[in-house]
Design a protein that fits this description.
heterodimer; A: 323 residues; alpha/beta; Rossmann fold; 8-stranded mixed beta sheet; 10 helices; 25% strand; B: 326 residues; 4-stranded antiparallel beta sheet; 13 helices; 12 strands; globular; binds adenosine-5'-diphosphate; binds iron/sulfur cluster; binds magnesium ion
Chain lengths: 323, 326
């Protein structure tokens, strides 16, 4: 097998908690606490979990939009944490991000054309304004928007259209990998499906890899080849997306799946209702982080951290049930 | 069963730069005693305007222009503020998507829950405080005594929504209007809140009007459903019937857009285009420009709600054509 495009190894991002007038460091939020996964060329890897579990922090750390605390990020075999600023800027051409909120992530004072040309200028991609304009027009058509609207402002577009503009901007520099952080979470289902189909088409056309971050398991399962389920800064289960749905290994994955409402009134099922809220990543529970909410909790779970292991071929979990 | 709430011909308009424009038009539906009615549709279809009209909580530029809202036979449209206040929070309670906007950040939680008890039930401060703690327990808040003394920002989103439900339950409402109560929450917390609502409804024989854009939530919670599009009711009927036999192309489009956990779909269906804004409501069927089955007739004339079966209606010319064909 060829080398994966992206390898994330034991990624950590801790945020300091500062207290008092002296801004003394009083503790740490372990937003991402040892995350590892790989993404092959042309593959979609999904990251799913409740809000606050560290998905966005992981996504941003991978692109070094925030500096990771520890871990390795290999892109095409190169450790990007070792790159200097100039080299990193070049590397950013290969890895782009699309954000959840198309309203907040597009500069309202720029026209769509300016938004799309900005990354081309930063990366000095074209020599002439005419070439950049031509490329901007192509990009708009690629994402299903009419090039004739390129001189308009973001607020003149609907939510779904703005998300298309965000995608076009990410594509402007011909990346190999796109980290999509909740790209459809703010959209109505009817529009969400348009954007999901677009991402799918673009992947096939341009042989893109995606890290697709979302809290909605049905969306993640639909688009992903493999899925990592995150809980309190860690991946607790990882595997092929259909297998993960058919037979979730980790009790957290089981609970997450069973919480998704099924749009079919004829289906009645037993539901696992998780008690309580997500604990604070500043002060995670001892042993298995999930044990206070776990229906299968055993004595060992309260004190010992479960090891990450391959439970079945290609299927990983960290849970004492599989010791 | 008998009607608790009867909305007929409701039209609510907003004053805009181009004068008064209707946001919802000729909306009619009934909520029976003990029933959960779902209202579903994309954002901007008029779901919130419908619920705010019932509660008479429209913003100052909004006005009910036509129609009646009968609650236990009593007309709410045109009711004086003072009389409406006796009903609101008492017989009819409401919860919203974002609890923080309706919770007062500077008042302790116990005090906020007790408020309607003091107003509607004439309870003393002491009595209302004790009842507030009971209500917090009822909605499954741990350490209820301590939480009653906390401020809202100390709680998580799920806990705040429980507090909102506690406030809503204070006076034993006959109708709970819940406007996207779980949209801002994680699925795991949504499951807790929906479970709580189901339990409370069963214990108290309350009716619920549940506004959501999630057809999964409709399928799990509701007895009947009203589908709204661009300010109009386009389909309504019992939930099982609507899911088994969706008839309006909009309802069909919504159902087909959902990614299904249980299937492996290569491609999702979607509905092209967007909900029109109230400034540019099209003539004819409002869905025509997005409808794969639209004909000239649809563009020219607006269909009325036509019967599909005895208690299932849809606003679509296709039904008419079927009847002609039969
Ligand atoms: N800049 C920051 N400073 C301190 N804590 C942060 C910061 N960004 C995120 N966090 C915390 O890190 C955790 C993970 O957040 P995030 O990555 O946004 O989660 P998700 O995207 O899964 O919702 C949360 O507890 C959040 O409060
Ligand atoms: N205060 C207002 N002024 C003007 N237009 C409004 C106002 N409130 C709602 N609208 C319009 O009414 C329509 C229905 O809105 P709403 O009921 O909030 O939709 P939903 O709750 O289904 O998302 C939308 O087109 C919206 O822009
Ligand atoms: S390790 Fe124990 S507590 Fe953690 S998920 Fe597995 S069974 Fe539950
Ligand atoms: Mg996030
Ligand atoms: Mg609304």
């Amino acid at each position: 097998m060829s080398e994966p495009l992206l390898q994330v190894r034991n990624l950590k991002k801790y945020f300091p908690i500062r207290k008092g007038v002296m801004r003394r460091i009083a503790g740490q939020v372990r937003a991402v606490d040892g995350v590892s996964f790989e993404v092959a060329a042309g593959e979609t890897f999904g990251l799913v979990g409740e809000s606050g579990c560290g998905k966005s922090t992981a996504g941003r750390s991978i692109l070094r939009l925030i500096e990771p605390t520890a871990g390795q990020i290999l892109f095409n075999g190169r450790d990007i944490r070792k790159l200097k600023a100039g080299q990193m800027r070049l590397m950013r051409r290969e890895m782009q991000i699309v954000f959840q909120d198309p309203y907040a992530s597009l500069n309202p004072r720029y026209t769509v054309r300016q938004i799309l040309e900005e990354p081309m200028i930063i990366h000095s991609l074209f020599d002439s304004a005419a070439e950049r304009k031509k490329r901007a027009a192509e990009l708009l058509e690629t994402v299903g928007l009419s090039a004739s609207r390129m001189d308009r402002y973001p607020h003149e577009f609907s939510g779904g259209q703005r998300q298309r503009i965000g995608i076009a901007r990410a594509l402007a520099v011909d990346p190999k990998l796109i980290i999509a952080d909740e790209p459809v979470s703010a959209l109505d289902v009817s529009v969400q499906s348009q954007v999901l189909n677009l991402l799918d088409d673009l992947q096939k056309q341009l042989h893109l890899s995606y890290v697709f971050i979302a809290h909605d398991l049905s969306v993640v399962k639909h688009i992903s080849d493999r899925i990592g389920v995150m809980y309190l800064g860690q991946i607790v289960e990882l595997g092929d997306s259909d297998e993960l749905y058919e037979k979730p290994l980790h009790p957290y994955t089981q609970a997450l799946l069973s919480a998704v409402p099924i749009p079919n009134p004829e289906v009645k099922r037993e539901r696992i209702i998780l008690q309580g809220d997500l604990p604070s990543p500043a002060n995670p529970p001892k042993g298995c982080y999930f044990h206070p909410r776990c229906k299968d909790v055993m004595e060992i779970c309260r004190t010992q951290t479960p090891a990450w292991k391959e439970v079945e071929p290609g299927r990983f979990a960290a849970c004492h049930l599989y010791d | 069963m008998s009607a608790l709430l009867e909305v007929s011909g409701l039209t609510t308009s907003f004053l805009t730069a181009s004068g008064y424009l209707p946001a919802i038009e000729d909306v009619s539906f009934v909520i029976e005693k003990g029933e959960t009615l779902g209202i579903v549709g994309e954002s901007g279809c008029g779901k919130s305007v419908t619920s705010l009209s019932i509660m008479q909580l429209l913003s100052v530029n909004g006005k009910i222009r036509e129609g009646t809202i009968l609650f236990e036979g009593k007309q709410l449209v045109g009711l004086k503020d003072a009389s409406m206040r006796k009903i609101r929070g008492n017989d009819i309670a409401m919860i919203f998507q974002e609890p923080m906007t309706s919770l007062n950040p500077v008042h302790k939680i116990g005090k906020q829950i007790g408020e309607s008890l003091r107003i509607h039930r004439g309870m003393s401060k002491e009595q209302s405080k004790r009842k507030a703690v009971d209500l917090l327990k009822l909605v499954g808040i741990p350490r209820a005594e301590d939480i009653a003394d906390e401020f809202p920002h100390r709680l998580s989103g799920g806990m705040r929504q429980r507090v909102m439900i506690a406030i809503a339950m204070a006076c034993d409402p006959k109708l709970l209007i819940a406007d996207e109560p779980t949209t801002a929450l994680d699925v795991t917390i949504q499951a807790q809140i929906l479970d709580l609502m189901r339990k409370l409804k069963a214990e108290r024989e309350m009716s619920i009007m549940l506004i959501t854009h999630d057809l999964g939530v409709v399928a799990e919670m509701c007895d009947r459903v009203v589908v709204m599009y661009a300010g109009k009711v386009v389909e309504q009927g019992p939930v099982r019937e609507i899911f088994r036999n969706p008839t309006h192309p909009y309802t069909i489009g919504l159902l087909n857009s959902i990614p299904r956990l249980e299937d492996r779909q290569q491609r999702l269906s979607s509905i092209a285009g967007n909900v029109p804004s109230i400034e540019v409501m099209p003539a004819g069927c409002r869905f025509a420009s997005r409808c794969p089955y639209a004909t000239q007739r649809c563009a020219d004339n607006e269909p009325s709600l036509l019967s599909v079966t005895e208690n299932h209606q849809a606003r679509c010319w296709l039904i008419d054509d079927k009847e002609v064909a039969m």
